[in-house]
Each structure stands twice: as C-alpha cells, then as structure tokens.
Design a protein that fits this description.
Helix content is about 60%, strand content about 0%. It has a domain at about 30-135: Insect odorant-binding protein A10/Ejaculatory bulb-specific protein 3 (Antennal chemosensory protein a6), CATH 1.10.2080. The protein contains eight helices and no strands. Helix 3 (about 40-50) packs across helix 4 (about 60-70) and helix 6 crosses helix 7. The longest helix is centred in the last third of the chain and has 18 residues, at about 120-140. The chain is mostly helical and about 160 residues long. It comes from Eumeta variegata (Bagworm moth). This is Odorant-binding protein A10. InterPro entries: A10/PebIII, OS_D_A10/PebIII_sf. Keywords: Signal.
C-alpha cells in the first residue's frame, strides 16, 4: 500500500468516525420569530418549557434538549458560552434576537432563565456592554468638518 492510498483510507475513516452532531439541526431555522415574540401565549409557552414549568411543544423540546445537551462545567449553554459555534448564521442571529428581546421586554423571565442557563450573568453583561457601546457611538457628535472651500465664495 502506498502513501496516497493510506491517506485516502485515513480521510475516509476520519469522516466516518467524526462527530456528525458538530452543528445544530437546521430543521427549525424557518420558525417565524416575529410571530413568537409578538404572541405572549406562544412566548410564555416556550419560556415555561425552558423553565420546566409547562408542557413543551416539539420545537420547545428540541430547544430545551439543545440547551441541556450543550451545558459545560459551569452550566452554561453552548450558545452563550462559546458564541454558538455550532449554530448556523441564521441560528446565531435568531438566538441573539430572542435573548435580547427577553432581556429588554421580559426581564423577570430572563432572570429565571439566567439562573438555570447562565448563572454568572455573563451573557446579559456582555449584551448590556454592547448596548452601552452602541448608544455612545450614536450619541457622539460627528467631528466638525472644516469647509475646504472656505473663502471661495468670498469676494
């Protein structure tokens, strides 16, 4: 067996034995987040599911399973701990949007979720720092631009 054949076999074997769960399912990527966030009953259902206080829809069960499966030593879910590296771009944007909505509009629910999924408060703290930074950028006056045509209109 020559080296190239050995490399081909190794490549095939590593693909077969690699972790097929390296990314989250995209099965729920087309869920209408606007509909959920605008509907108190739906959003409360998801929150209660994540808190273990109510029945879970199939979508809620999947979300809860992902959060529970990807806890790390300090009980932080993957999406919060490492920037959601197993998420698609759409999932990253969606998860940030939902978490930001709950932090801003349902702080009591966020506090309960945070106790379970982010007890050190790092996600909220990072989000609030980011918000503060964006607010500062928006509030800063633009540098006064000197008119380079100064004197041209003077006679």
């Amino acid at each position: 067996m020559n080296l190239s054949q050995l490399l081909i076999i190794f490549t095939i074997a590593s693909g077969v034995f690699s972790d097929s769960k390296s990314t989250y399912t995209t099965k729920y990527d087309d869920v209408d987040l606007d509909e959920i966030l605008a509907n108190e009953r739906l959003l409360t259902g998801y929150v209660n599911c994540l808190l273990g206080k109510g029945r879970c829809t199939p979508d809620g069960k999947e979300l809860k399973a992902q959060l529970n499966c990807y806890h790390v030593t300090e009980n932080l879910p993957d999406a919060i701990e490492d920037g959601c590296i197993k998420c698609s771009d759409k999932q990253k944007l969606g998860s940030e949007r939902v978490m930001h909505y709950i932090i801003d509009h349902r702080p009591d629910d966020w506090a309960k979720l945070e106790e379970i999924y982010n007890p050190d408060g790092s996600y909220r703290n990072n989000y609030l720092k980011e918000e503060l930074s964006q607010d500062k950028e928006e509030d800063e006056p633009e540098n006064d631009k000197k008119d380079t045509n100064e004197g041209e209109n003077c006679k």
